[in-house]
Design a protein that fits this description.
- This protein is α+β, with helices and mostly antiparallel strands.
- It folds into 2 domains: 2-121 and 266-333 and 345-414, D-Maltodextrin-Binding Protein, domain 2, CATH 3.40.190; 123-263, D-Maltodextrin-Binding Protein, domain 2 (3-Layer(aba) Sandwich).
- The chain has 19 helices and 20 strands.
- The protein has helices spanning 6-19, 21-25, 51-58, 61-64, 77-86, 98-103, 129-135, 156-164, 179-190, 223-228, 241-247, 273-278, 280-302, 305-312, 322-329, 359-371, 381-391, 394-406, 442-447; strands spanning 2-3, 39-44, 68-73, 91-95, 112-121, 123-128, 141-142, 145-146, 170-173, 197-199, 204-209, 214-217, 234-238, 251-256, 265-272, 332-334, 340-342, 347-348, 428-429, 436-437.
- The strands form 7 sheets. Strands 1-3-2-4-15-5-18 form a 7-stranded mixed beta sheet, with helices on both faces. A 3-stranded antiparallel beta sheet has the order 13-6-14, with helices on both faces.
- A hairpin with a 4-residue loop joins strand 10 and strand 11.
- Helix 14 packs antiparallel against helix 15 (322-329) and helix 16 packs across helix 17 (381-391).
- The longest helix is centred in the middle third of the chain and has 23 residues, at 280-302.
- The two termini are 42 Å apart.
Length: 459
């Protein structure tokens, strides 16, 4: 679905043709030069974390850069990814592991890069009411409410009952080389449940080898209807589709992603390397607009979030009830009906990590690709960093940020000291299982897991 203000676009386009695109960009012409391509189409999936794209459009940040952008909703992640590769889309809202899947050849041989992280955290795992009713019996209480984060160990008796009844236990995720697949596998494995392995060398890309729970692909907007139909008994997805299950009385979220891997890159802005090389000014200008949008979203202690909720509640963007979207976007999250808890960083866009595509985030996702067999052989630590630098491009981000500072649109204090930045976050432990991740030691990290490939192991 296209999102256009045709009158505004017509007038701006006419102005651009008559007096030159640079005039539209105002002071932005200082360093980058005019866009090589100024009419662009960016894709997105109907999730709340596409919101930086919507804000950059609605607030005129793209126009400030001389860019005329069409935002278009896509049916699912595969369609979106394929259309970026084919050039039908100039860029898109992407799952953070997608550029890495391209860099490693797991998805395609096409080179996809990300110069910008659209969001951190922002996902959750929800189970059907019937599953939760059984799980809850094994979950400790704290203040009369279930203690979080909830471990998948509470799911084991449910799995056993399904097995005895010869019933399939199916969980949804959104894309094999994707955020929700790897987070769901991490949660299951931390609770002692094997989610299965991929074996590409054997031609088995089902991800079900040795699986105790089956994971299958479901497009985000279909998560709730699929669970309502009984095809799945739970899923991992971004918002608003976890809160939608609560509002409809169908399911209960059991864990949010910052309790699995805190402040990890969840979605990125992805485009082909070929596009960025052919259109460097356009790429930088796009990132400048997205930086401003993300900063606006986190400004004033999330004070702009209610306005953001109204924007993306429109059918052309996410198309969900404002109350459902606001439940997570404005800093709270509801688990069981009435159990609403403050989670101010559930959706984080700029605060703390600025939208920078950190190498350590890329390495984390690649360790999960290795852990579950998408990377079938042992790789040295240096390989993980090489892949990260191939796909994640903070150099483009820095150019954009410095221009915003020079133009007076943002301040140097809004950003880290780029001269000292390594783009490796400090080591941190998972709140779920206490395992520490250090982005400079991926193989040591993999060795810490009881379930998952490590060392020279292969399927």
């Amino acid at each position: 679905m296209k999102i256009l203000n045709s009158k505004r676009r017509f007038l701006l386009k006419k102005l651009a043709l008559s007096i030159g695109v640079l005039a539209l960009a105002g002071n932005a012409a200082a360093a980058t030069g005019k866009p090589e391509k100024w009419e662009l189409k960016f894709g997105f999936i109907k999730l709340t974390d596409m919101v930086p794209l919507a804000v950059a459009y609605e607030k005129g940040y793209f126009e400030d850069e001389g860019l005329f952008v069409t935002l278009e909703a896509q049916a699912n992640w595969k369609v979106l990814f394929d259309r970026v590769v084919s050039g039908e889309l100039d860029g898109a809202h992407m799952l953070a592991p997608m550029p890495l899947g391209a860099a490693t050849g797991v998805i395609t041989k096409a080179e996809i890069i990300t110069p910008f992280t659209l969001s951190y955290n922002g996902a959750a795992i929800t189970v059907a009411n019937s599953v939760w009713a059984e799980m809850k019996k094994g979950v400790p209480s704290e203040g009369g409410k279930p203690k979080h984060p909830i471990s998948a160990t509470a799911l084991k008796p449910v799995l056993e009952s399904y097995k005895k009844a010869s019933k399939p236990f199916n969980l949804g995720m959104t894309f094999p080389v994707g955020t929700h697949n790897y987070l769901e596998r991490y949660w299951l494995a931390a609770g002692g449940i094997n989610p299965g392995f991929y074996a590409p060398d054997k031609g088995d890309n089902s991800g079900t080898l040795n699986a105790e729970a089956m994971l299958s692909v479901v497009p985000p907007p279909q998560m709730v209807p699929t669970m309502e139909a009984g095809t799945t008994v739970g899923y991992c997805v971004g918002e608003p589709w976890n809160q939608q299950a609560v509002f409809k009385g169908l399911g209960v979220p059991v864990i949010t992603s910052e309790n699995i891997w805190p402040n990890g890159a969840d979605k990125v802005f992805g485009l082909t390397k070929a596009f960025a090389e052919k259109n460097p000014n356009t790429t930088i200008r796009s990132v400048k607009a997205l930086i401003r949008a993300s900063a606006w979203l986190d400004a004033n202690n999330n004070g702009n979030r209610p306005e953001a909720v109204k924007i993306i509640a429109r059918p052309a963007y996410v198309g969900a009830d404002e109350k459902v979207i606001a439940n997570s976007m404005t800093g709270t999250f509801e688990f069981e009906k009435g159990d609403k808890r403050p989670i101010p960083d559930f959706n984080k866009f700029f605060r703390g990590y600025y939208g920078i595509p950190y190498y350590s985030d890329a390495v984390w996702w690649t360790t999960q690709m290795r852990r579950w067999g998408h990377i079938s052989e042992q790789k040295p630590d240096s390989w993980y960093m090489d892949i990260a630098k191939k796909a994640y491009r903070p150099d483009i981000y820095v150019t954009a940020a410095k221009e915003l500072i020079a133009e007076g649109k943002m301040k140097a204090s809004d950003f880290p000291d780029f001269d000292k930045e390594t783009y490796i976050k400090p080591a941190q432990k998972s709140p779920l299982d206490g395992i520490e991740y250090d982005g400079t030691k991926p193989n040591d990290y993999l060795e810490k897991f009881a379930i998952g490939l490590k060392g020279a192991q292969k399927m």
